[in-house]
Amino acid sequence: MAEEELPGVLILDIGGTHGVLENIAALLKKHFHLITMKEFLGNKEEMSKKIQSVFVFECRPSIDRELLESLPNLKVIGNSGVGVDHLDLRMISSFGVKVTNTPCAVADPTADIGMALMLASARRLVEGNVFNFPG
């Protein structure tokens, strides 16, 4: 499928301090034509018609009424995190746009860290790590 035939997804950027991680961008490119916020703002009239989804990564891009009004073909906002507290769901749904997230994406790593912290605490690993043995 040619890039132009793929639905457009708006992202803040690829890489850098606040952009989508490059491995995630590579996965998105298999299913979407990626449009960065810079590209969108540089040619709003043309790009706004192509964008059918927004991929929110680390709460960016910010979803506000102005952005929603400028995306007439927007169907879904995908949030790459567990919660959606940073999104105004009532306002978004008033535009007929669905919101999705990844509720189980960090369940296993969170459990792993929790177990590691409990074991480290029970075995006093942090204290042992900084303890200087004579010798």
UniProtKB/TrEMBL annotation:
> Which Pfam families does the entry mention?
2-Hacid_dh
Cellular component terms per the entry's GO annotation: cytosol
Q: What is the official name of this protein in its record?
A: HPPR reductase
Q: List the PANTHER family.
A: 2-HYDROXYACID DEHYDROGENASE-RELATED, 2-KETOGLUCONATE REDUCTASE
- Keywords linked to the UniProt accession: Oxidoreductase
Lineage of producing organism: Eukaryota, Metazoa, Chordata, Craniata, Vertebrata
SUPFAM superfamilies, per database record = Formate/glycerate dehydrogenase catalytic domain-like (SSF52283)
Domain named D-isomer specific 2-hydroxyacid dehydrogenase catalytic: which ranges?
A: 22-113
Under InterPro entries, the record lists: D-isomer_2-hydroxyacid_DH, D-isomer_2_OHA_DH_cat_dom
Q: Which GO terms describe its molecular function?
A: glyoxylate reductase (NADPH) activity; hydroxypyruvate reductase [NAD(P)H] activity; NAD binding
